[in-house]
């Protein structure tokens, strides 16, 4: 399988090329193209977060921890003293960076469920939700980021399969077929859970600009993400 540097380099080059192409054809602004490039590069690291010792795992959880800390600080900065906001943000970061990472490493297996196309769909769907609901980007930008995350993660799987073929010795390694797969069929329960998460994330996502109409799958008002977020804010206030 390809190493961290190879995955990062290839994902950076491919996502950068596609971002420039989107910019040149008028499908993206310079700011959009930069965000797409970052999303594609990050997507190229995501499949390796199921490896307990991988650099990708530490990078992703550091970024996620920083995101949680920043979100907590922004939400509470107008209602709590500064020292409490800093303490809350620090606690959120440490919880994600160490506790959540430890739990995640315990329940995941390298080249298991997260090394699959179904996982890539989930990565992309989460990217759409974060871009639209957390960073308040418009629908087109959110789906562009989700698409680049999916693309980068899929490039990762393709690279792993390519590196499973030993061209010099003209043989196929035992790892061939363990990366580019629909899902991990040896974990049917977890695969079913991931499928439900994919459906849920896509259902909560904004209507894609390339889907017209949305086939009548609009959620009731009490089930929308904004309603749930408002309810959580009232509980935590």
In short:
By secondary structure, the chain is mainly α.
Radius of gyration: 19 Å
Q: How many structural domains can be distinguished in the coordinates?
A: 1
Largest sheet: 2 strands, antiparallel
| Average pLDDT level | 80
Tally of contiguous helical segments: 8
Helix content: 55-70%
The largest sheet has its strands arranged as: 1-2
Sketch the topology as an H/E string, one letter per element: HHHHHHEEHH
Instruction: Detail the poorly predicted runs.
Output: 166-170, 212-217
What is the number of beta strands?
Answer: 2
Distance between the ends: 48 Å
Task: Describe this structure as you would to a colleague.
There is one protein chain. The chain has one domain. It has helices spanning 4-24, 30-43, 55-76, 82-107, 117-134, 139-162, 188-204, 225-236, and strands at 165-166, 171-172. α1 (4-24) packs antiparallel against α2 (30-43). It has eight helices and two strands.
Strand and helix map with partners:
Elements: H1 4-24, H2 30-43, H3 55-76, H4 82-107, H5 117-134, H6 139-162, E1 165-166, E2 171-172, H7 188-204, H8 225-236
Antiparallel strand pairs: 1-2
Keywords:
2 strands; single chain; globular; 237 residues; two-stranded antiparallel sheet; mainly alpha
């Amino acid at each position: 399988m390809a190493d961290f540097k190879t995955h990062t380099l290839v994902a950076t080059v491919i996502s950068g090329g596609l971002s420039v192409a989107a910019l040149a054809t008028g499908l993206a602004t310079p700011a959009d193209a930069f965000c797409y490039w970052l999303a594609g590069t990050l997507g190229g690291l995501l499949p390796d977060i199921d490896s307990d010792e991988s650099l990708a795992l530490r990078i992703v959880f550091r970024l996620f921890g920083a995101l949680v800390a920043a979100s907590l600080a922004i939400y509470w900065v107008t209602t709590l003293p500064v020292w409490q906001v800093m303490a809350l943000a620090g606690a959120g970061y440490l919880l994600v960076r160490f506790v959540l990472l430890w739990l995640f490493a315990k329940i995941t297996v390298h080249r298991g469920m997260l090394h699959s196309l179904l996982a890539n769909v989930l990565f992309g769907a989460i990217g759409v939700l974060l871009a639209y609901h957390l960073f308040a980007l418009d629908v087109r930008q959110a789906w562009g980021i989700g698409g680049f995350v999916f693309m980068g993660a899929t490039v990762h799987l393709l690279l792993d399969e390519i590196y499973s073929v030993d061209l010099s010795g003209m043989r196929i390694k035992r790892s061939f077929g363990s990366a580019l797969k629909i899902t991990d069929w040896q974990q049917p329960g977890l695969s079913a859970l991931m499928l439900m998460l994919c459906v849920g994330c896509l259902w909560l996502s904004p209507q894609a600009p390339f889907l017209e109409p949305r086939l009548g799958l609009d959620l009731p008002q009490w089930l929308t993400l904004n309603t749930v977020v408002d309810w959580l804010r009232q509980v935590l206030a």
